[in-house]
Specification:
There is one protein chain. The protein is an alpha/beta fold. It is about 30% helix and about 25% strand. It is built from eleven helices and 21 strands. The protein has helices at about 1-20, 70-80, 95-100, 100-110, 125-135, 190-200, 220-230, 250-255, 265, 290-295, 330-335, and strands at about 40-45, 50-55, 60-65, 85, 90, 110, 115, 145-150, 155-160, 175-180, 180-185, 210, 230-235, 260-265, 270-275, 280, 285, 300-305, 310, 325, 340. An eight-stranded mixed beta sheet has the order 7-5-3-2-1-15-16-17, with no helix packed on it. Strands 8-9-10-11-12-13-14 form a seven-stranded mixed beta sheet. The longest helix is centred in the N-terminal third of the chain and has 21 residues, at about 1-20. It binds zinc ion (2 copies). The site of one zinc ion has 5 residues, from loops.
């Protein structure tokens, strides 16, 4: 049994490596004349775990597949929507609450491409997942940092941009863009990754945020939320989970950012709709996108060394290392920073 598991894992590593070396650019599948229909972002209630389904027209993308226990729930959800083909399945990282249902899902539907972060696991759920990949002759890819167009969606993989040394932080982090609307999926990546994405200038600004690590206090930092500036944030945690997710500190920070919070443990499955310009709840309520632009206008940049803060366009901005971002002027003043005499923020 153990030997078999080892062989499966070795085979997968070879497959991933081979795929990476010889991968052709999936952007070739873009339909150039695609007219925008509406898109739906489903955050399926899988208890303590992640599973998002993104659809428009006949394009279907799934990010993570919940726990082993929720595999049958996801299969039923897909079948109720008449989906028997996923253009793309993305497993952010090999933890049971993200890939546990992967074997069930990929057994029940066909898939165009599978993207993984390249890590393996010796757990039973992963062994089963690998078995299904092998059975169905599916070669997983490790996506490069950059763009992949799938139907009307533009995916941009932002991370792992380096080896962060643990599986949660090595989650695939990506944005999914539909028209002018962007959703950011963070897997279980926490503050180290958030800081790196800010530092390396990744485009993380988004309308919809899949809150990282089920609302852990070690993710969703103030600086990160300021940069993302979401109008709606979805937390996928299971009610009564043993981790205490979502942690109240994280929830408070997200509330303060001005984003509307939706929670799978309270709201059940969350469905957001978009026409490529705005984001709506399934009941038709609009999430205010302009708020995001206003919040961006009000960003102030402080110099940690000189304790002076500037507006974003000031020619005397500090280097990245010494920067601190304030979303309100009063926050800069309260933190003991004084206004730059040049740009008069
Ligand atoms: Zn995890
Ligand atoms: Zn997780």
């Amino acid at each position: 049994m153990k030997k078999q598991k080892l062989i499966s894992c070795i085979l997968l590593i070879i497959l991933i490596f081979t795929a990476c070396t010889y991968s052709t650019n999936p952007t070739e599948s873009v339909k150039a004349d695609e007219t925008l229909e509406t898109a739906q972002f489903h955050f399926i209630d899988v208890g303590q775990g992640d599973c998002a389904l993104i659809r428009s027209g006949d394009t279907n993308i799934m990010i993570d597949a919940g726990t082993s226990e929720s595999g049958s729930i996801i299969c039923e959800y897909l079948s109720n929507l008449g989906i028997d083909y996923l253009d793309c399945f993305i497993g952010t990282h090999p933890h049971e609450d993200h890939l546990g249902g992967g074997a069930a899902v990929l057994s029940s539907v066909d898939v165009g491409a599978v993207y993984l972060n390249g890590e393996t696991s010796s757990s039973y759920f992963f062994e089963r997942f690998v078995d299904v990949l092998l059975q169905k002759d599916i070669t997983p890819f490790i996506p490069d940092i950059g763009f992949y167009d799938i139907g009307p969606f533009r995916l941009e993989f932002l991370s792992p941009c380096q080896d962060f040394g643990n599986s949660n932080d090595n989650s695939l982090v990506l944005t999914v863009k539909f028209g002018d609307v962007t959703a950011l999926f963070t897997g279980d990546a926490e503050r180290t990754v958030e800081a790196e994405l800010i530092k390396n200038g990744s485009n993380i600004n988004a309308d919809i945020l899949k809150v990282s690590h089920h609302g852990s206090r070690y993710a969703s930092s103030v600086e990160f939320l300021n940069r993302v500036s979401p109008s709606v944030a979805v937390i996928s945690s299971g009610s009564g989970n043993s981790y205490g997710h979502p942690h109240k500190e994280a929830v408070q920070r997200i509330e303060k950012s001005g984003a509307e919070i939706l929670r799978c443990d309270i709201d059940g499955t969350v469905v957001l709709m978009s026409d490529g310009k705005e984001v709506y709840s399934s009941a038709g309520a609009q999430f205010d996108k302009n708020k995001e632009e206003d919040a961006q206008k009000q960003t102030y940049i402080g110099n940690k060394k000189s304790k002076i803060f500037h507006c974003e366009t000031c020619p005397n901005l500090p280097g990245d290392k010494n920067r601190i971002i304030f979303n309100k002027r009063e926050n800069a003043v309260m933190s003991g920073y004084s206004a730059c005499g040049n740009c008069n923020p």
